[in-house]
Structures are given as C-alpha cells and as structure tokens.
Structure to design on (250 residues):
C-alpha cells in the first residue's frame, strides 16, 4: 500500500540495498537523516565533496529505496525510507544462530577447561 | 581473543562486509555454509559458474571475514565466520526506530480514519 516492497525483499532489492550501504558517505547520509529531513546542501555540508558527488550518492540511495525526495517543495528535502533497512535486519536475523552458536561453543570450551582444572586441583582459589 | 574484529566494526570493515553481501551468489554461498563447512566443489555445484568465478566470490567473502578456509586439510573446506554479520545486525539496529516509527505513524493514521468514520456513522458493520 504505502510501500512498493514486498515483505520479503527480492534478491535484486537486497543486492541494491547492500550495494548502496557499501559506502561510508552514504551510511553517514542515512545517519544524518535519522534526525529528520534535510536538503542536499545540508547533507553535503559535513563532507569535503562536490555537490555533483553528493548528488550521485543520493541517486544511489534513492534507487535502492533508502531515501525519498519530496517533489513538491523547491528545495526537494530528502528523508530516510526505512523499509529496505528492515529487509536487511530480516535477512541478517537468519544468521543470528551462527554467531550465537559460536559464542556457545566458546562458552562450552571454557567450561570444559575449568572443569578439567578443578578435577586436577588447579582451579581452586 | 578469538576474533580480530572490535565489538564496533570500523567504517572500512562495514564497507567491505556490505560490498561482499551485495551479490546474490555470495549470499547463497553463506546460506549454504549455515548447514556446515563445504568444499569449493560443493559450493560451486548449484551455480552454473566456472570454478574461477566461484573462487573469486570466495576470495571476496574471505577478505570481508565472512568465511574462513581451513589451511591444514588438502580440500581446504570453507566455513562461515559470523562476526561481520553480527556487525551488520548491530549497525541496522540503530535504524529500527525509523521503520517502527513509520509503522506507528501508519497505525495512528488508520486509527484516526476509523475514528472519523465512526463519528460519521459509516464505520459500523
């Protein structure tokens, strides 16, 4: 309804989102937009970059659906559109098990070492 | 200790992680590795791709720290190393507010519309 994106992002959409996020300037622009909409001039301000370079970054963010630009107002403010970021969160959630299991294995290993040390009487304070 | 990565990933690390994830084949390789380690031949199998092309993808994943390859065994199995994915999850978490607020606004808007309809007697079943 309000979004063109399906609940599960397509492979193309995810590829375009990850591609857009693979740049520190573009991530900084998104971080800036978390505090509200901003003009291109405002967004360019913290970077030592030409307006042309910033505009290119904005186009990549816009194409990935990560920002939207108002059409009515003359200064065309940018705002963040978070749907693709939710897709990233949903995607990465599938891998949570991988890093949690890794921590579990480490924890189990440390417990075993501690148990062995206790058995050999080297672990007691 | 077990990881070279700091709890907060640097901008360079995030850029390299997002860059590596911006490809459907590389994401499919990671998905495959969630069920355990695999050889390059096994990983290449589902794709109509040369071994050279697969090796290139694996190098990009390895450089981003998303996979590791055993050095000892002759078949050099690949396994997933989830630390950079946890960094992605931590990063995207900062934006959760953006998509949740968006849903809140939508919910508030719908509630207002329903309230108005009730007031005008058009909302009753």
């Amino acid at each position: 309804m309000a979004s063109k994106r399906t609940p599960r992002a397509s492979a193309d959409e995810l590829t375009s989102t990850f591609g857009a996020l693979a740049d520190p300037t573009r991530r900084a622009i998104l971080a800036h937009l978390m505090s509200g909409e901003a003009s291109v001039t405002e967004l360019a301000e913290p970077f030592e970059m030409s307006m042309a370079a910033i505009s290119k970054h904005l186009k990549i963010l816009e194409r990935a659906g990560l920002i939207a630009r108002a059409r009515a107002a003359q200064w065309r403010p940018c705002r963040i559109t978070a749907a693709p970021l939710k897709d990233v969160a949903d995607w990465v959630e599938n891998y949570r098990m991988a890093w949690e299991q890794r921590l579990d294995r480490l924890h189990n290993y440390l417990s075993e070492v501690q148990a062995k040390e206790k058995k050999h009487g080297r672990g007691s304070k």
Q: What stands out?
A: The interface with chain A takes residues 2, 11-12, 14-16, 18-19, 21-24, 27, 30-31, 34, 80, 82-83, 85-86, 88-89, 91-99, 102, 106 of chain B (CB under 8 Å). Residues 1-7 of chain B have pLDDT under 50 and may be disordered. The helical segments of chain B are 11-21, 24-33, 40-44, 51-63, 83-93, 96-119. The beta strands of chain B are 67-69, 78-80.
